[in-house]
Predict the 3D structure of the following.
Amino acid sequence: MSSRQSRLLRGAAALAGVALAASLAACSGTSDGAESGDADDIAAALEAGGEITVWTWGTPVQKVADAFEEKYPNVTVDVVNAGTGNDEYTKLQNAIKAGSGAPDVVQIEYYALPQFILSGALADLSDFGFDAYEDAYTASTWNSVTTDDGIWALPQDSGPMVMYYNQAVFDQFGLDVPTTWDEYIAAAEKLHAADPSKYLLNDGGDAGFTTSMIWQAGGHPYSSNGDTVTIDLQDQGAQKWTAVWNQLLQNDLISPISGWSDEWYQALGDGTIATLLSGAWMPANFESGIQASAGDWRVAPLPTYDGTAASAENGGSSNAITEQSSNKLLAAGFLEYMNHDPEGVKIQIDAGSFPSTTADLESDEFLDYASDYFGGQQINKVLVQASEDVLPGWEYLPFQVYANSIFPDTVGQSYASKGDLNDGLVEWQEQTAAYGTEQGFTVTTD
């Protein structure tokens, strides 16, 4: 274990608020096989064959694995659905602590990646020459998988934010597509006044959505340098966002329907909820789960504060190789095929993933695609522009998984009481900072 890993292991964040003791176990279980290699070494390993295990919750991965096994018949890829998000992270953290049981390749959302980097759980992909791939990915996703010390994953997909809106509802109530947040508030007021059963949006309080909206407002509430962390959830961007959202929340302009519930799908289908602010991965969910309003929906850029285009990432995942892997070269071969090879990336795009690879985002085939669901609109042109408008410089905490887990008890309470969201952000900051200090970080708050 390196001295850096030993020092930062004290700050390895626990999941769901349960702290994991710093121990040598977090750095044990590394492979006895080859730790690194160039393209020739990877090719030789693929020819020799073997077996790797991949943890994921994304359905396209099995299709990628099937194609990969056909191309490399001596390799077996065991794809395991380890649960979504926190369920998988809990299992992975337990395997890290135990020193065994981790997969060779693991899917990790961008917000959760810093936790596993700092615990020394992931292999540095620059050891396989993947540092040459920077220009192949969007700046925001590449920034999410790299630190000054290395490359810890390859971007799998991305989620630049846009506004999905129901054109039929907009036409019925004479709403213009808002381009600024002031216009968005005005449209929310007009719609709900005309029909109190209808809302422009729903938002019951979600940590990932909140951080993305602060990001889009130009906020930088988190920064870290090793085990030194700064948290400022009252920075200019946070206050710009709450100035808008407090008006919506406190004036009963936000639907109380919970996201991803059956009622939510129904409300999007029958026009009860008229817009959705979400990532570029959402169209596949519209097509599979909201058939009642097929043809009515359109895509537009997020409204902005001053008319200057600005977006943020919401969701999206990367894939990493664990230090416990005893087949790192095989794992590197699969990772490269899935997230970098045009063949593997296309399989995921065809299954509804929104790519992070610039070649695909710039291709005429991708840009010119006309979606029947979205009324024949060439939606990818809007989504790709959003990826180019993502504001740079965003950071997540090295214990963001924990921070997100306490969101319902902090900012969530402001949502529930329809109070001042700033009060919730302050409480979220205080509890998050206290946890970081307990884990051995030096935390400052502004």
